[in-house]
Design goal:
- The protein is of the alpha+beta class.
- Among the domains are: 94 residues, Beta-Lactamase (2-Layer Sandwich); 142 residues, Mu homology domain, subdomain B (Immunoglobulin-like, Sandwich); 104 residues, Immunoglobulin-like (Sandwich).
- The chain contains six helices and 22 strands.
- The longest helix is centred in the first third of the chain and has 38 residues.
- The two termini are 50 Å apart.
- It comes from Puccinia sorghi.
- Keywords: Cytoplasm, Cytoplasmic vesicle, ER-Golgi transport, Golgi apparatus, Membrane, Protein transport, Transport.
Length: 503
């Protein structure tokens, strides 16, 4: 690529350097002073050229550039800000420009899940009626279509593959607040560092066809819970709906989300080879009324034990947000005061991330002790303890992988449990919350597993949600750009786990 430059002196005596290069039928030009670094100017020019070529697929023409002018100018603004070059590459530009609608994703997932739920419900009912017919014939009963069902049996019941027990699960306390149930855990999917894949909310049609029979939830009460149409896992692994959101929202509503990833050591603390605690967050603005689009939002950051100092967080604003206002006073507003925020759709205006070795941020610790016994199996004791007083644990689920073909016998359990048999067998320990849904600060579980070794029970995966985010970023005030008049607003926050495991 040929890069040219020329220098002129204006009538006012100001020297200007033109650095330019041909771009098919067009010319790409940047203006600098003579004292600027020519090598850096050339690098900037080439990056801008790649940006234009990336957005204008095929031939770069004037019509093509005009058609993608908004994206091109927003990308240029990420490269050069107030006359200075930003430290960013083409991949970084692509990441910034991929601002996706959170609400649109949720609606698509909900529509697909409703359709799949209906199909799975028909299959489940057909299978249930077939099982009842066979059981009624064996008992010699005439009422073949009797709908009465037993409690599902306990864990002392012998393994009978010819008569599988229909799975009985306990309904999640928040499942009624959402329209989608979550897919059961997979230990393979909880491996840290692996990419998550988009899965259906319910299991595959042949998920229960493995070597394990479905196993009922064992509860501490006398009777088991009634059967449900789907086995809900935690709400955190379903769509990103917030059960803690207010029932009514103001015309201006702000959504704060944080996802937590961490690898913990078996003896406590962070794993030796772990990168630390990884947190990624976002702030989404939703405006319902056209009269309240020209606004600014002031954010606040609380500081307490077990939270993140603001200086440690890397913030990134939307390309159309005034960066100077954000840097000076933590205010989110548009660069162009004449423009307003879009209505009736969510817009991610701020993102942040953090990687920290500070173990005070760990919300929950897991202590898993598998001990080999004389019969070739393992006696497993596992307990959890809430570590961060700023994080209330809701929908807490701890998943322990099981050896192939080994059937566990649970001796003690605080809460309920069930065995998932998709691809690999997993013992899911579900901790019930109080009246407000908050899990106890600690609990334990004991079980025996034949034909196993201690390493086969790792990694232990943990999943939960919380209405408190670790960064403690919150909305302090919303006001109009013209007149700074305060506006009523609502907000909700949700912390969820992405990949949190004991390795």
């Amino acid at each position: 690529m040929v890069v040219l430059s020329a220098s002129i002196v204006t009538k006012g005596g100001r020297p200007i350097r033109y650095v330019y290069q041909p771009l098919e039928d067009l010319w790409l030009v940047i203006l600098t002073n003579r004292q600027s670094n020519i090598l850096q100017d050339i690098d900037t020019l080439q990056l801008l050229s790649r940006i234009v070529s990336d957005f204008c697929r095929g031939t770069v023409t004037e019509a093509e550039v005009l058609g993608r002018s908004f994206e091109v100018l927003s990308s240029f603004d990420e490269v050069v800000c107030m006359g200075y070059r930003e430290k960013i590459d083409l991949n970084g530009i692509r990441s910034v420009m991929e601002m996706e609608s959170h609400e649109e994703k949720i609606q698509e997932i909900i529509a697909k899940n409703k359709e799949q739920e209906a199909k799975e419900e028909l299959k489940r009912r057909a299978k249930q009626l077939d099982t009842q017919r066979r059981e009624a014939l064996k008992r010699g009963q005439s009422d073949v279509y009797s709908t009465g069902m037993g409690s599902g049996g306990g864990y002392d019941r012998p393994y009978q593959p010819s008569q599988p027990v229909a799975p009985v699960v306990r309904e999640d306390p928040y499942s009624s607040r959402t329209t989608v149930a979550a897919k059961p855990f997979k230990t393979k999917g909880m491996q840290l560092g692996s990419k998550s894949k988009s899965q259906g909310v319910l299991g595959d049609e042949d998920a229960a066809a493995g070597p394990w029979p479905p196993v009922s939830v064992i509860q501490n009460s006398e009777s088991a819970a009634p059967p449900t149409s789907a086995a809900p896992a935690s709400a955190a692994k379903a769509v990103d709906l917030n059960p803690f959101a207010p029932e009514t929202q103001e015309n201006v509503h702000l959504v704060l989300r944080e996802k937590l990833s961490a690898e913990l050591a078996r003896d406590g603390g962070l794993a030796p080879n772990s990168t630390g605690i990884n947190i990624s967050g976002s702030l989404e603005l939703k405006v319902a009324a056209d009269s309240e689009t020209k606004i600014w939002v002031n954010l606040n950051h609380g500081v307490s034990k077990g939270t993140i100092p603001a200086s440690d967080i890397q913030f990134k604003t939307h390309p159309n947000v005034d960066k100077k206002a954000w840097a000076d006073s933590r205010v989110i507003k548009l660069k162009d005061a004449e423009r307003g925020f879009p209505t009736k759709q969510g817009l991610a205006v701020l993102k942040w991330r953090l990687t920290s070795k500070d173990e005070t941020l760990i919300p929950i610790s897991i202590n898993c002790w598998p001990t080999s016994n004389d019969d070739g199996g393992c006696d497993v004791n596992i307990e959890y303890e809430a570590e961060n007083e700023n994080v209330q644990l809701h929908n807490l689920v701890i998943s322990i992988p099981l050896p192939d073909g080994s059937y566990p016998k649970v001796a003690q359990c605080d809460g309920t449990y069930e065995i998932q048999t998709e691809e690999t067998a997993v013992l899911q320990w579900k901790i019930e919350g109080d009246d407000e849904g908050v899990a106890p600060s600690g609990g334990s579980m004991e079980f025996h597993c034949p034909d196993s070794d201690p390493d086969s029970f790792f990694p232990v995966s943990v999943d939960f949600i919380s209405p408190s985010i670790l960064s403690q970023v919150s909305v302090d005030q919303v006001a109009t750009v013209a007149g700074d008049e305060p506006i009523e607003f609502s907000s909700d926050a949700l912390l969820s786990t992405e990949e949190y495991a004991v390795v």
